[in-house]
Specification:
By secondary structure, this protein is α/β, with parallel strands linked by helices. It has two domains: about 5-85, Methyltransferase, Methionine Synthase (B12-binding Domains), Chain A, domain 1; about 95-215, Cobalamin-binding domain (Rossmann fold), CATH 3.40.50. Helices cover about 60% and strands about 10% of the residues. A five-stranded parallel sheet has the order 2-1-3-4-5, sandwiched between helices.
Length: about 220
């Protein structure tokens, strides 16, 4: 295993083992040794949190452990996300992103927003627990190309469909490319509700956003 792979493994296992010191040491190694912070987040931190989320769903761990892991992840992201945002690229388009009303989970959405910025998008992050109308209002105000809606919980995923229905009702559905994601979403769900795109990971979301935008512009 080479040095980069070892650091990514340390990040992933640090999150899974709720080892705050290990995660902090690993993120500083990423910066010191010049490794790609986007890759470290995606393959290390995000993957570790996905494992913890799956364990929670199977009741192999309980809420206190999940919350500890989430706090550790946020600490790691606080160090790595600014490194991504230092990478200056030509602006590719504008994205409005947020976690749907009733859902207070932000880690996945924050990582996607960071990846989108790294790929050259201007990102308007609405945060979490966002009302449906707010996505529309901000997209119109900012001249957004893409609306990206996250939902982690099965109890809130219906809000993604409601947001698309709202755009239809306002007569503005064709103006925007709509992407959905989060733990509760799936390709089948995206197709069912008429979304334009879905991605499982943050890196996939950024790449797919570029592809959708190129298709829309006839590229």
């Amino acid at each position: 295993m080479n040095e980069k792979e070892e650091v990514i493994r340390k990040l992933r296992t640090g999150v899974i083992n709720c080892n705050e010191k290990g995660v902090t040491e690993a993120v500083h190694e990423v910066i010191k040794k010049g490794f790609d912070p986007s890759e470290a987040i995606e393959r290390g931190i995000s993957e570790g949190m996905r494992v913890m989320g799956n364990r929670f769903d199977k009741m192999e761990i309980f809420l206190p452990e999940l919350m500890i892991a989430a706090d550790i992840v946020e600490g790691g992201l606080d160090i790595l996300l600014p490194e991504i945002q230092k990478e200056k690229r030509p602006m590719k388009g504008r994205v409005v992103i947020g976690t749907i009303k009733g859902d207070i989970h932000s880690i996945g959405k924050d990582i996607v927003a960071a990846m989108l910025r790294a790929y050259g998008f201007q990102v308007h992050d609405l945060g979490l627990d966002v009302p449906i109308s707010k996505f529309y209002e901000e997209a119109m105000k900012s001249g957004a190309d893409i609306i990206a809606i996250s939902a982690l919980m099965s109890s809130t995923i219906g809000g993604q469909k409601d947001a698309i229905d709202f755009l239809e009702a306002m007569g503005e559905r064709e103006r925007f490319t709509v992407m959905v994601g989060g733990g509760a979403a799936s390709p089948e769900w995206a197709e069912r509700i008429g979304a334009d795109g879905y991605a499982k990971t943050a890196a996939e979301a950024a790449k797919h956003a570029l592809e959708l935008l190129e298709e829309r512009r006839g590229g």
